Amino acid sequence: MSVQVVEPRIRGFISLTAHPDGCAANVRRQIEVAKAGALGAGVSGAGVSGAPGAQGVPGASGELGNALVLGSSTGYGLASLLVAAFGYRASTLGVCFEKEPSETKTATAGWYNLVEAHRAAEGEGLRLETINGDAFSAEVKQQAVRALREDFGPLDMVVYSLAAPRRRGADGTVWNSVLKPVGAPYSGKGFDLRRNEVTEMAVEEATEEEIAATVKVMGGEDWREWIELLGGEGLLAPGCRTVAYSYIGPEVTAEIYRHGTIGKAKEDLEATAHELDAMLSGEGGGAWVSVNKGVVTQASSAIPAVPLYLSVLFDVMKDRGIHEGPIEQIVRLFAEHLGPGRSPRTDAAGRIRLDDLELREDVQAEVLRRWPSLSTETLGELTDFAGYQRYFEELFGFGVEGVDYAAPTEVNRQIPQLVAL
Fold first, then answer.
1. How far apart, in whole angstroms, are the C-alpha atoms of residue 13 and residue 224?
2. Is the pTM of this model over 0.90?
3. Other C-beta atoms lying within 10 Å of the C-beta of residue 302
4. Which residues are within 8 A (CB) of 356 and not within 5 positions of it... i.e. 6 or more apart?
5. Mean pLDDT, to the nearest integer, of 136-155?
6. Of these residues, 245, 247, 257, 309, which one is catalytic?
7. Which residues of 11-22 are buried (b: 16+ CB within 10 A; e: fewer)?
8. Is 257 marked active-site?
9. Helix (H, G, I), strand (E, B), or coil: what is residue 330?
10. Dmax of the chain from CA atoms?
């Protein structure tokens, strides 16, 4: 039955359902933020009329030509798609891996996100196409090459925002990423999302094989393969820029994150950025890693200690009026660093730092002050766990203001301009 009442079926960091109307409302809100941010950056034709006081960002004017977003359906990848397309009027090709609706199941949230993004793009006369498939595969890479050659032309921007748990090689080898510390076991505070309880947890250290597999999945090798393929096919415009997303995080999660298996993968990603930058530099082109702020995603919710840390962080940043979600972060990335006419500002390691507000000294000092006192009983007092829960539900289209969840809705929604494999 394609018209039905959709109820949340959330189990820990997994949701078995997604609400199409809630996902659509989320996307519409992000589109408005993208437009307003681009208008503030001086982009003509951004689509927001009557916005008062838009001062502009010096040099950040003009439209983006052609953009490819790898991992385009949720989180930072979706935000990148929306900022490029609706903020900078780019002709945009997205690649994602989502499940379409069936007779018995809703689609995944990312699918419904793109249904709405495509609907809005058509209404504004924007070119937006999507390839739904495994971005690690040679088949999808070749399909992207064909689509770019036939419908787009050389790329001005390539965003790499994949967050997959596994990767299959051309020879059938499968690598699985793991969330483990390196060099010693981890013990410390964690959070049980099924029971909403602060816990003490222990995680064994990773083996060398697990470290290597995580680097294979989440490091820079696939990013390099994409850029080398596109360059070899003549599909990178002069001055093309590419960016991949990373995270460093605070002291309280360092053992399990930055000094763990994921951290090893991120080090590889950063090394890859330097290699690609040497290939693309000239005429304003280059490659960068953008270190972004911690936000609620399905992937981050699976990392031990991170949901608890984010719950504290959100409360502290909201108190100071500096909290940002993915769309606000990517608006800032383009307006200050990667938009037309902008020159990226980097740290000593060559990274763009959008986590500057998260890691501000006063913010982290307050997080560390609260951390020892965190318990199930103090969640309401010391954290914004209610906000964390709301953000998590919104990932799947639930708990969104203005949506009638008691009303039946059409779940069999299809993505226009879905490029066939």
1. 30
2. yes
3. 15
4. none
5. 97
6. 257
7. eebebebbbbbb
8. yes
9. helix
10. 59
